[in-house]
Amino acid sequence: MRRLEDLAFLRAAAVWLQARPQLGIDVFVRPHPAPVHEGGYVALMEACLVVLRGRAERADAAPIYQPAIPAIWRVPDALARIRMLLAAHPAGGALEEFLPPLAPGEADHGLKVRAAVASTLVAGLELARDGVAGLAQGTAFGPIDMMAAERQPASQRVAVPA
After folding, report:
1. pLDDT at position 162
2. Which structural domains are found in the chain, ordered by start?
3. Cα dist. 95→13, 55, 125, 128 in Å?
């Protein structure tokens, strides 16, 4: 009989412990406050002078990192090229025909190709939205064809709300 009472007591204690808020699940520990850096008025003025004088007068000044920005094909460039090519050839063609000429041996070739494809696609979508060009894709993940808007079949035209 004593064992059954002990078992009932342990089960009740387990239920009580399980119902309490658990650390990391129901409640969280507050982080320790950040240490306060104390300094005097003179230290503040010296720090201000360092900032006001700039990095050039400091002996330990590290050079400022300025990454080289690659010359990539941008959307305005693609818009101009597509308009020019569609004016000359209204029948258009595959999206790849509207890409700029890129030399395969130049630096960052992969980046430049991806930027050219993305910019040309975005420019084509903008021109389609404005009613200047039409885009068609025969199959899912298939090639995208671009043509002047008047050459696009009426069944493929999409009305764009104003």
Report:
1. 46
2. 75-156 (1.10.10.580)
3. 71, 49, 11, 13
